[in-house]
Write a structure and sequence with these properties.
The protein contains 22 helices and 5 strands. It has 534 residues and is mainly alpha-helical. The chain folds into 3 domains: 1-161, Rossmann fold (3-Layer(aba) Sandwich), CATH 3.40.50; 163-202 and 247-365, Serine Threonine Protein Phosphatase 5, Tetratricopeptide repeat; 367-529, DNA Cyclobutane Dipyrimidine Photolyase, subunit A, domain 3 (Orthogonal Bundle). Helix 5 packs parallel to helix 6. One of its GO terms (molecular function) is FAD binding.
Length: 534
Amino acid sequence: RADASPPLQDLLQAVENGVKRSPTGSAVVYWMRMEDLRVSDNRALSRASAQAQKEGVPLIVVFIISPQDYVAHDRSPRRIDFTLRNLVDIKTRLASLHIPLYVTEHKPRRDIPRLLIDLLQQWNARSLHANIEYEVDELRRDIAVCRLAKGAQIRTDFVHDRCLVDPGAVFTKDGRVYTVYSPFQRNWLNVLNSNLKWIVEAPLPQPNGEAIYSHNTLKELFQADVPSEVEGFKCRDKETMTKVWPSGEEAANQMLQMFLCTKARTSQMGLANPLSEGAEPSDKKSRAVAYKDSRDKADKDTTSRLSPYLAAGVISARECVRQAMKLQGAKKVQATRDTGLGTWLMEIAWRDFYNHVLAAYPRVSMGRPFQEKYADVKWEVNEEHLQAWKEGRTGVPIVDAGMRQANKMGWMHNRMRMITAMYLVKDLMIDWRLGEKADGDLASNNGGWQWSASTGTDPQPYFRIFNPYSQSEKADPTGEYIRYFVPELRNVRGSDIHNPPPKVASKLGYPLPLVKHADARERALRRYKYPGEE
């Protein structure tokens, strides 16, 4: 039913059918969510500010903490902590513009639309602005907000902001949404370059007048603090996360510049501050320039590490593209495999692709495989194997290194994501949805997991199964990545680091492999070829 009537279209229709001209109130409200945590280049915030300036009233920013949503969407304590730390930075920046950030916590989550409209009525705000979220639950929530707003004579403005090119703007020749990446990327690039309005930076919000501090109701909003934690989501390694993932737009932009303009370092492989000094500047051998050839190597900081910041909206995809174009000296977006930077921009195109799929085929965010023919694939139910995979105790060094990196850093190198995901679903034959629950950003996360499981759009064919040992030799040729994250093997040299002999593993206290890859491969081929059978 959701696929037959995608809720994104229902939301856009609800906005279109909403209040066109509301009476001028006492304020304009921008509703910030977990995926647009920035002040710069924020379309909904910019539009809200422009509306407030036009009406001559103050702008208010509101953020609603929703613990039930965090449980429903498998949000981790680290993700919630990252959100709260960024909110602290945002509150400080907005305060310098005399704009209050009002943070409140609410449950049950189904009542959030009513809470939000009640707040607007309390503040006599007649205009609500927000960026669109493409997940099913969020779209349905926002449709409910629009209906309540219409009854309260409040104008709603929900706008696209997450992607470079909006969902609904890239179609096949016969008007369908692309489900294969390569032709999508080519058309996406043509659409993007045919009108560079897509990457124009949204204006910064304008300051409120200082009279807001004298307003009987609105002045109190400045006193609403951002909590240091949310009950049930206490971050146990907050100090480490603060070091490894510094909060704020300034940090995200510095990380982008270091990726674009400095060389990779082995010292940044693990629990290191990404902004630490010592990176060697280079315009010809920077991480971005070398990305095409080095991105799959895990023994240095060869990637941008910006995925947490893009997922939370601390930096916009548009800013990444603009800075890449500046470095290239280009007037058009050059997202091609010819160069390192072009290859990196193609990864941002993947992000758009999966969001377009999410918007057009809501079932992928509802626990359904995109390729329904694989809905009956027989999965193993083996809690011991699943737990060993989560903890990095599978007996396959590259898989264990990747999982331990995720456990330590809350993040994993992209090549390791592919290797560990493929191992879970093809070698251990465990349902991809159990792996997805442990992951982050829904669109890219779901797309990646279903790619590995051969159940998604443009998937890895089921008969192509990664050999984790040969993958290890390619991704970690020196073995330093494994030695860092799997200290039991720190003294192992040569090819044994990738597949330790049983005697060596036992002597070092390292587990033996849970399964034999050759046998597991045959099992996976059989079960995918004949879904539903053992």
